[in-house]
Amino acid sequence: MITLAHISDIHLSPMPPIALRDLVGKRLTGYLNWKLRRNEELNSETLASLVAHLQGQNADFTAVTGDLVNLALDFEMDRAAKWLQALGGADKVAVCPGNHDAYVAGALESAQRAWGNYMHGETLDGHVFPFVRRIGELAVISCSSAVPTRPFLAIGRFDEAQAERLARILKVMGEADYFRVVMIHHPPNAELQHPSFGLKGNKLFRQVIAENGAELILHGHTHRSSIHSIPGNKHEVPVVGVAAASAAQGGTLDDPARYNLFRIERSGDGWSCTMREYGYQRLGTDIVMRLQMRIS
Fold first, then answer.
1. How many domains, the chain?
2. Is residue 250 over pLDDT 90?
């Protein structure tokens, strides 16, 4: 059996004093949004408690589906690197970037430098994404939907070139009979698309899955717990989103902080995957198992 943990939308805080020269363009609107809305709803105490609970599970691998930072400033990138090191070694943790990690031009490249092996793995043709991490019979495939956008937009993008590489990886990993988990920050299913924060190329992503298959897709971005599915070449593929890991109780915008734990094992000629969701509820102060279900 292999255990896989899933956590997302870290949004490390608190935000230290920021020089006015750093608050230009989208960073200005993002900073105002943080001070007026997000500052009270995303906090470090909630995140620390959730991560401590997750680490107590001793998962074989942890998938982090993006948004470690807020404005993608250099000190945030360095702080996120230290947070990843505390979460676990780079051999047991992989990151796919979110829109906040690519908040402005050049930010994603800064994240890649700061986070090093947490955002690297086996690749095709020298491209960073998608990359693959193999853990026993588990193949975790990290895609990137992270692109800089104009103020008030949080869209992601999945293009033809990345689609072609993902298709090749899925085919090879499928022929080798791995349990294939695809990470992407923005949700790819049709139900969660929106003009201002959806995934451009979501139909293309679903086409790749329909033609090549996968066993599980993980995403963040919505700050909500969700379970959907999209067609695969042999069976429906579960699409699982998770609430923001730093979302405090009593907030009006998001579900309270949660993470998912998947137990994956062989079952006859196929696979069995059971999901458990842990986290806060809207009432009560304890982290509890909120849900257990078999998803494949």
1. 1
2. no
